[in-house]
Write a structure and sequence with these properties.
This protein is an alpha+beta fold. It has one helix spanning about 65-105; strands at about 5-20, 30-35, 50-60, 110, 110-114.
């Protein structure tokens, strides 16, 4: 299934999102600008909507949607696998550390293990 050239209208909003005060360097503004769709509102983080604009985007013709979807899923599998392996390594390290605690001598007296 390939795409046909299609116009898509979208409302975009520019938001000013506050930076943490400890990350603002001298001369920088205390916020950063982010473009979001009009439906995605980051109001919960103290952001302020600066400007909204309606724009038209073009979906190019000839993109194989099925191949693209499969490729996207393969990338998500790779990401999930990497994140899972990192969590597993973290948990295995915690288990090893706990096992080492169990085998540590309780007291040392005059250089000898009691």
């Amino acid at each position: 299934m390939k795409t046909k050239m299609t116009e898509v209208k979208a409302n975009l909003a520019i938001w000013a999102i506050p930076r943490r005060h400890d990350f603002v360097e001298e001369g920088e503004l205390p916020f950063r600008y982010v473009v979001k769709t009009d439906f995605d509102t980051p109001w919960q983080d103290g952001s302020t909507k600066v400007h909204t604009v309606e724009t038209t985007l073009i979906v190019p013709a000839g993109i194989d949607l099925l191949a693209s979807a499969i490729e996207t899923l393969k990338e998500q599998i790779k990401t999930t696998r990497k994140e899972s392996n990192e969590k597993i390594a973290k948990y295995e390290k915690q288990i090893t550390n706990l096992a080492l605690l169990e085998h540590k001598p309780e007291t040392v007296s005059g250089g000898e293990i009691v």
